[in-house]
Amino acid sequence: MSQNTAAPQKPPQQSARGAWASGGTLFAGVLMLVTGVMDILQGIAGIAEDDVFARVGDYVFEFNLTAWGWIHLCLGIVVAVAGYGILTGTEWGRVAGIALASLNVLAQFLFLPYQPWWALFSMAVSVFVVWALATDHSYGAAGGDRR
Questions:
Q1: Could you tell me which of 12, 23, 25, 85 has the fewest CB atoms within 10 Å of its CB?
Q2: pTM above threshold 0.85
Q3: Average pLDDT of the residues in 73-84
């Protein structure tokens, strides 16, 4: 009978910055889901009732509020799906998350005169999501799934 006397292997240590990025990625996935659901609700409100949002005078990027409702509804659905992809650890979730968070920053900037506080908050959340997804180098390293 032979016994294996090899020392047990320690799991690889993660740096503090890597731990922040990894935790930030999980948080980014949750934020993408929440932002997507909030955009869906914002879109439904804009489609159903034009009086929900403030009226703006002459604005360069002025759209009909129903059109803004449809924009937010469609964007919210795909943002929520990307959030699910991030939480499941797929590479397409990371790529879609970065792209859609960037698109959400642009959409919220254009929507700024209608809901300024929510637009600023949503832009800040989206910038955090881009940072978290772009700095987590361990994302998808374990064969595509991170559970």
A1: 12
A2: no
A3: 94
